[in-house]
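Bench notes, bay 3.
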Amino acid sequence: MEKIYLGKIVSTHGIKGEVKIKSTFPYKKKAFRVGNHILIDENLYEIKSYRVHKNFDMVTLDDYHDINEVLFLLKKNVYIAKEELLLEDNEVLDEELMTFQVLTTSGKKGIIKEIFLASPTNKIMRVQLDKEVLIPLNSPLVKIDAKNKEVLIDQMLEM
């Protein structure tokens, strides 16, 4: 089973056993669905409720209904099994994208060296072509072909 990092439990919320998860995972709505299972310290927990509150993902797990029952989960990393995500064909995780080949409309080939967040909504790829360039991942000039494992970049973005 391949596990994917979702985030970290940073605190509890209220007295009814809800935990607060800090996550930058792009497919949160698929990961934190009620009924899905998450992994914490190699133990499986079922998600009983999910909501977003002030940039945090608020989750209740299994049959924990009291703050004292979930204190042992604080500061723990949260993972999900890749099979449970049910991603569409055009949805690609950053870890997979790092293995894709970069092709430009002018025929250059390259590799993705790094993907990072420039802001909460903008991802940047550090791509090695002839020289290293930074390319916004959400640009309309960047096309991701998940089937062929390629990232196609319009020549206008090349330097």
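Next record in the batch:
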Amino acid sequence: MATWDDVRRLALALPATKETTSYGNIAWAVGDKTFVWERPLRSADIQALGDAAPDGPILGVRTADLEMKEVLLASAPKIFFTTPHFDGYPAVLIQLKKISAKKLGEVLEEAWLARAPKRAREAFLRDRA
């Protein structure tokens, strides 16, 4: 089970990441592009999800594209989900209490890569090789 401390630690470990806010919630951005954020469910989300609406902390995470969004949703539907608000938008929602810190780190890294400036992304990948 991942925690907000894990999110903070993993996000800030990525180059050029800063902690900020988005719509009054905590978020993390690379440059001026948010790649992960706290995303409590809104009443419209709860209504759309019905009995399937999860409780507990929810994290929004950008994906590289809509195809990657679908891959994540299909790979672990107990962890990753979406709402109609995110239809057509490359992002998934994560039930924080159902994802391991290790898996969370992988997802955050992919989100960072999707949003990071080209030079930062290339330097990061070069350093990892």
